[in-house]
Amino acid sequence: MSATPATAEVTSVAPPRERSRVVLPALLFLLLALVPLAVSFGMPAGWLALLTRALIFAIAALSLDLILGVGGLVSFGHAAFLGIGAYVTGIMITEGKSEALVILPAILVTCALFGAITGAVCLRTRGVAFIMITLAFGQMIYFLAQALSAYGGDDGLTLYEKSTLLGFNPFANRTSFYYTVLIALGGAYLLVRGLVASRFGRVLRAARENPTRVSVTGFDVTRVRLIAYVISGMLAGLSGFFLANHTEFVSPAFMSWQRSGELIFMAVLGGVGSLHGAIIGAVAYLIAEDALSHLTEHWRAIFGPLIILFVLFTRGGIVGMLRKLGSRHG
Amino acid sequence: MAEPVLVLEALSKSFGALKVTDGVSLAVAPGELHALIGPNGAGKTTLVHQISGMLTPDAGTIRFRGQDVTAFNAEKRARHGLARTFQITSTIASLSALENVALGVQAKAGHPLSFFRNAASDERLNRPARAALDAVGLSERAHVPAGSLSHGEKRALEIAMALALEPAAILLDEPLAGVGKEEGERLIGLLKSLKGRYAMLLVEHDMEAVFALADTVSVLVYGRVIASGDPAAVRADPAVREAYLGEEG
Fold this sequence. Notes:
The structure holds two protein chains of two kinds. By secondary structure, chain A is mainly α. Chain A has helices at about 5-10, 15-40, 45-70, 80-95, 100-120, 125-145, 175-195, 200-210, 210-215, 220-245, 255-270, 275-295, 300-315, 315-330; strands at about 155-160, 250. In chain A, helix 3 crosses helix 12 (about 275-295). Mean pLDDT of chain A is about 90; it is low at about 1-15. Chain B is an alpha/beta fold. Chain B folds into two domains: about 1-80 and about 170-180 and about 190-250, 3-Layer(aba) Sandwich (Rossmann fold); about 90-165, no CATH class. Chain B is built from nine helices and ten strands. In chain B, helix 6 links the parallel strand 7 and strand 8. The mean pLDDT of chain B is about 90. The chains are: A mainly alpha, B alpha/beta. Chains A and B meet through helix 1, helix 7, helix 8, helix 9 and helix 10 of A and helix 2 and helix 3 of B.
């Protein structure tokens, strides 16, 4: 909200910021769609697996951005939903139910229930207390998974089969796996974007800035936030489904608080609140992690400070940086 | 006199040992502009917070449109048609002026939380919102983010946001606070244009404005109403002069 001269704003119909919100995401998805093509033209095949994993995390980071960036709620337990999605997938495949159209509804219902119950408690608090309670619920699920001795307990659960979709095997082949995740991500992105622009999203955005004003206008702020929290959790559960199929392994580490922290990093790295920023952030995070871990085994010692420097010096993350570049050059 | 819209009966509130609201009773009739004045620390804003549901009184009742709303929270009172503005301007800075007002229209609409239709281009929300902006003289500034408006414009925007709720009563907490002379005069003109159409409870420091606008004036000192009546009588009241008017000139 810079103090631009008022007269310039009166007549502007589509401010440049609006334009960048169409061009950048479109470009991003186009690039992502071309990745398998690049691989067939000589890009190392390892990239496809890496980017598939990145897009899976992008779904989770995007879902987090709905409550974190749009709603202003810093959840430090978001990996719990990812883990629930992965565990429901793992358990159901182990029990011989590998059809995605059976697994996905089970994931969505479980995540919605978990989100509704924990959200109703968490959202009674604000600020640091909210962070701590979401963290506590996340750890609760983590320890619950450790105690699941029938499904691997602490050691995790190896999957000997992948999910099918209507009898087809979209996850059998690297390229079709990639495109399946990309389509899911695109769908999730459009859904969240639509939500943010809707009446519901407007109330959610307004409540991030000024909850008091929103409640004296007649809205139940807690209810609106709870709905966002549940939707966000369901989407994160979806990413857990893909993650379980991708790693062919499920373990309690999927829902550790470190994983929740990574999701926050991804959203912040990309630029919170912009939605496509979360996708860019997830991709950048996983590529950086991969590149640095090839460099040295102490890569975390480099990665940590890098992230801190980046967050300190680029307000608005990667998207904010691109926006600044864009406005400088035209 | 017609049945009052807003009635306070023996409202009391303490913060620890400090009685900030001490048995306050007052009534606002439909279309009446009731001004509440008093020195700093008299408990005016605390009283407005209790009426709007942001604070719960320790004792007493608040009746609004014939209904006891004492137990209602702020959002429920707003849905019943009680709108308010704040002493410290309270808008959504990143949303445009139009969107700020549309938020109020939306609260009043049949589907306040629909999930998929784009809200920004929804004429069912924008048309009434533009009308409210027009009423406060901000139609030219509809697409400016609220945070970039001038202070006086923000105050007017808050009033437009209240109007969007189609309220039965509006609580105005120092709408002229911090506003320059020129913008202040415009705001007084705006309040005059609304007079008679809404029941209004106006908390204000600017005595000139209060005596120009109010039908009834109540004086709050240390949480108690020490005088209430038509402006001329209140102005002449010796207790009021001593407690308040005298010291401010």
